[in-house]
Amino acid sequence: MKRKPDDAFMDSIRIQGGIALQGKVRIQGSKNASLPVLAATLLTGEGSFIRNCPRIADVHSMVSLLKSLGCIVYWQERGIFVDSSNVRKGVMPREAVTGMRSSLCLLGALLGRCGEVNMEHPGGCVIGERPIDLHLSALKQMGVAFSEEKGQLKAVAERLHGAYIVLPFPSVGATENIILAGVAAEGETILEGAAREPEVLTLCRYLNCCGACIEGAGSSKIVIRGGRRLCGTEFRVQADRIVAGTYLLGCIGAGGSVFLEQAPAEEMEAVLLAAEEMGGRVCISREGIYVQAPERPLPVKLVTSPYPGFPTDLQSMALAVETKGSGCTSIEETIFENRFRILGDLKKMGAHIEQTDCGRVTVQGVEALHGTKVEAGELRGGAALVIAGLMAEEETLVGGCSYIYRGYENICRDFRELGARVTSV
Question: For the whole model, what pTM was predicted?
Answer without folding.
Answer: 0.94
